[in-house]
Write a structure and sequence with these properties.
Two copies of one chain form a homodimer. Chain A is mainly α and 121 residues long. The first copy, chain A, has a single domain (14-119), classed as Winged helix-like DNA-binding domain superfamily/Winged helix DNA-binding domain (Arc Repressor Mutant, subunit A, Orthogonal Bundle), CATH 1.10.10.10. Helix content of chain A is 58%, strand content 12%. Chain A contains five helices and three strands, in the order ααβααββα. Chain A has a three-stranded antiparallel sheet with strand order 1-3-2. In chain A, β2 (69-74) and β3 (80-85) form a beta hairpin. The radius of gyration of chain A is 18 Å and the shape is globular. Chain B binds a DNA duplex (30 and 30 nucleotides) through residues 24-25, 40-42, 45, 52-58, 73, 75-81.
DNA sequence: GGGGATGGTTTCCATGAGGAAACTATAGAA
DNA sequence: TTCTATAGTTTCCTCATGGAAACCATCCCC
């Protein structure tokens, strides 16, 4: 077993860029939408409340460029475009799912902590 | 077991805000720095390459407000300030660690995918 | 009273991420 | 030829994030 020559604590390390991509505003939600299989653009858009088409396209293109999502165009009428997690993308599913689950299950506690903090002088 | 009334796919749900806080630029790195125990401001700053004091303060304050980190001031000379993960914060450690480990171990693959994507017309 | 150490704060600024709204492309159906 | 549907693109704009640099507060020591 070699050690991995990547370290997120190093500002020059590419893994830090990768980490930030993972944590961007829409990526975890796209993964959540695609977790059960291929999904069309308009379906992903509907799954994720509040995302505009421009930003969704940007997000999907970036994920495609990074090899996490694949894009398939079907020459039907009207055209059908399916987005699917690649094997690499699926390997990220479990970590992201853990973070998402944590956020949902602890959101209430955090809201309470904020109120307590803001109430204190 | 009740179902959790929070859903990151709902744009009005507070859990989405929580998810985005977790995924912000410096939060995962602060967690990485604090994972083994209390740490001073200057130590955290040194651990995380490239963070400015202003931004580090902002990040730590936010984490403190959210109940994830506690701040202890010791009236020594010079003053000593220690930041520690709270139990709530420690419960987030495993999910964040999984994401960080994924980023480090797959960074090389992603860089390759990008080159391949950019090389294609 | 000057210096050094820690832990910040303050000001100012540039960049870019993201959003709103309108528009485009394709192609069959009516 | 107009309509519909999907899947975007384009333009413009705003706002927040983050960074650089300088400054501040405390307290002891010399």
């Amino acid at each position: 077993m070699e050690t991995i020559p990547f370290d997120v604590m190093d500002p020059a390390c590419p893994s830090r860029v990768v980490l930030q991509r993972i944590g961007d505003k829409w990526t975890p939600l796209v993964f959540q939408s695609l977790k059960d299989g291929p999904r069309r653009f308009s379906e992903v858009r509907a799954d994720i409340g509040g995302v505009t088409p421009k930003v969704l396209t940007q997000t999907l293109r970036t994920l495609e460029r990074d090899g996490l999502v694949s894009r398939a165009v079907f020459a039907e009428v009207p055209v059908r475009v399916e987005y699917t997690l690649t094997p690499l993308g699926r390997s990220l599913l479990a970590p992201l799912e853990a973070v998402r689950a944590w956020a949902e299950s602890h959101a209430a506690t955090i809201l309470e902590a904020r109120e307590a903090f803001d109430a204190a002088d």
